[in-house]
Amino acid sequence: MRADCLILMTDTDGVFLDKDRPDSLLRELSAADARGMIASGTADRGMIPKLEAACDALAAGVGSVYLVNGGKPDTLIAAARGDSVGTRLVN
């Protein structure tokens, strides 16, 4: 792939250290840390396939992956501009 960025629009604001604490949103996450969250159980249920898809895209050569809430207005535009929105995953 030669994409600089992939934006995954989901039903959540991004990746949280604790899904029950909105203030635990991670703005940036490495692929290694994402895999660690899956292995440790910190990421569960619906977040697992999102993180796996993001890690697969990074492994295929995408520069960064954003996990953003597609239900919020202007989120796609903000992510495309590189604004701090959702969680940005990088290698």
Helix content: 25-40%
Tell me the number of strands. Answer: 6
Distance between the termini: 15 Å
Characterize the biggest β-sheet.
4 strands, mixed
Count of individual helical segments: 3
Structural class: alpha/beta
**Overall morphology:** globular
Low-confidence spans: none
Give the spatial strand order of the biggest sheet.
1-5-6-4
Strand fraction band? Answer: 25-35%
Radius of gyration: 12 Å
- The average pLDDT score comes to 94
What order do the SSEs take from the amino end to the carboxyl end, as H and E? EEEEHHEHE
Describe the overall structure.
The protein is an alpha/beta fold. The strands form 2 sheets. A 4-stranded mixed beta sheet has the order 1-5-6-4, sandwiched between helices. It has a two-stranded antiparallel sheet with strand order 2-3. The chain is built from 3 helices and 6 strands. It has helices at 31-40, 47-59, 75-81; strands at residues 5-10, 15-16, 25-26, 28-30, 64-69, 87-90. A hairpin with an 8-residue loop joins strand 2 (15-16) and strand 3. Helix 1 packs antiparallel against helix 2 (47-59). It is globular.
Q: Topology of this protein?
A:
Layout: E1 5-10, E2 15-16, E3 25-26, E4 28-30, H1 31-40, H2 47-59, E5 64-69, H3 75-81, E6 87-90
Parallel strand pairs: 1-5, 4-6
Antiparallel strand pairs: 2-3, 5-6
Helix pairs in contact: 1-2
